[in-house]
């Protein structure tokens, strides 16, 4: 058909088809752009939602032996989960003292904390302090045996109070340290600058058993200023902790006898840990076991090295057998008083029995 005889409807159809194609093309371009944008936003949103961050706190410095190992552990957990689980530590007491840390775990402001025996006791599980009770264990082997014997029951006590123990730890062998004098007899502490750490239920009983002592209750963060201004002249602590917390530069005298062992633990909120995907739990558990396996022998060795350094720079002295018996008498009286008040009698008896050679 020639152009001159085509029906008018053909031209109309050609016109509509042409413009409809242009409209559809614009529509498709807009729709495709919207879909691409939605996919991009959706992908970014899902990536953010998939990343879980756990907030942990501690009094430990990040460059301490514990801090370096904890950072390594956190990095490995992140790698193993493909970055889906990140660990954020607050070091050097940035989250407050251990009393406040445990309060924050209860309130959901922290997911957990690496704490000393004092921090463990803030959960209400004061039986955990048995492992640091003066005069109970002669060496680490006895302590390890006792802890292994009651670990399952003790962890159930924590779970009943809303906590889980991700790992147990130690911080060295506790010795008496002082500024300007030796401590041979319990009465040598009378009139001296002593203190109790806030939240510790054992120290007040110990000083009460000695008699003639009025210790101040302070936070761990107040110890160094107290040593510097002279208000504190006595403390019982491991050589390694004394170095790491910068106390050792102020100490002049160190008793050679080990009176107890510094223990601690990695606490976490039971509800927070239960809510994690199972693969996160498995990875944290596996890496945590490896961390504990490295830390325990390393810390004990480092503590012995720190004590050797103190021997070269401090006055290190031994107690006579008679003086040791004086201290044992005090420790025994404290243990009897705490059994049934701070410690449940059944757990006390089991720990003491399990720790005997």
Helix content: 40-55%
The CATH class label is Alpha Beta
Number of E-state strands: 10
What is the domain tally? 1
SS content category: alpha/beta
- CATH architecture call: 3-Layer(aba) Sandwich
Task: Looking at this protein, list some descriptive labels.
alpha/beta, 357 residues, D-Maltodextrin-Binding Protein, domain 2
Short characterization:
By secondary structure, this protein is α/β, with parallel strands linked by helices. Helix content is about 50%, strand content about 15%.
Explain how this protein is built.
- The protein is α/β, with parallel strands linked by helices and 357 residues long.
- The chain has a single domain, classed as 3-Layer(aba) Sandwich (D-Maltodextrin-Binding Protein, domain 2).
- 52% of the residues lie in helices and 17% in strands.
- It is globular, with a radius of gyration of 31 Å.
